[in-house]
Amino acid sequence: MGYSSSLSDQEWEIIEPLLPKKKKTKPPTWT
């Protein structure tokens, strides 16, 4: 899932509410 690393904080603020609740929290591997 390399696309996740290209997302900026501003983009996350937009897309996070659209994601399923189970993906609401980012896995440690994304940090």
Q: What does this protein structure show overall?
A:
The chain has one helix at 9-15. It has 31 residues and is mainly alpha-helical.
Cα-to-Cα separation, first versus last residue: 13 Å
Instruction: Write down how many β-strands occur, each being a DSSP E stretch of 2 or more residues.
Output: 0
Radius of gyration: 9 Å
User: What does the oligomeric state look like here?
Assistant: single chain
- What does the largest sheet look like? none
**What gross morphology would you assign?**
flat
Low-confidence stretches: none
* Structural class category: mainly alpha
- Helix segment tally: 1
Mean pLDDT: 68
What percentage of amino acids are in beta strands? under 5%
N to C succession of SSEs: H
- Considering DSSP H and I runs of 4 or more, what fraction of the residues is helical? 10-25%
Task: Describe the structure in brief.
The chain has one helix and no strands.
What layout of secondary structure does this protein have?
Layout: H1 9-15
List its salient traits.
1 helix, 31 residues, mainly alpha
